[in-house]
Amino acid sequence: MKEDKENTRPKEKRVEIKYEDGEKTEKSKEKKEAMTKIVIRRLPPSLTKEELEEQLQPLPEVDYLEFFSNDTSLYPHLFARAYINFKNQEDIVLFRDRFDGYVFIDNRGQEYPAIVEFAPFQKTAKKRSKKKDAKCGTIQKKQLLCWTS
């Protein structure tokens, strides 16, 4: 039986690209940075940053710790959360094993099992210094000039 040339697909050609030094594959691996920032979710709403740091002791080397208290606009889901950036990636596994599912108890005795996972956004916030407003108080200076002349 003859094949109809119009209805047949052309044969796919497989092309392999070989690299002599393997440079391209190494560069793509270098671009991906290691994930070192984690988030602890479902913390008790009444928890403070100081209480959290006390319960997380001993904490491995950390270069960023940000705590967010509960948001009352999200009424049924009133939980606090914390973001931690570790210096060593090996510490993340130990921290997760210790605190994923760890039950935090608030001041009323309610239990809150925490969830530890990688933060979806891996960058850390930078501390910015507030600049003094150059035009602050200029109206008062103009009024003084008008009254004196």
Report the mean per-residue pLDDT as an integer. 79
Number of helices: 4
CATH class of one domain: Alpha Beta
Strand content: 15-25%
| Helix and strand composition category | alpha+beta
Low-confidence stretches: 25-30
Query: At the fourth CATH level, what is the homologous superfamily of one domain?
Result: RRM (RNA recognition motif) domain
CATH T-level fold name of one domain: Alpha-Beta Plaits
Binned, the helix content reads 10-25%
CATH architecture of one domain: 2-Layer Sandwich
- Largest beta-sheet characterization: 4 strands, antiparallel
Number of strands: 6
N to C succession of SSEs: HEHEEHEEEH
What gyration radius follows from the Cα positions, in whole Å?
A: 29 Å
State the shape.
extended
Give the end-to-end Cα distance, rounded to a whole number of Å. Answer: 109 Å
Record the strand order, biggest sheet.
2-3-1-6
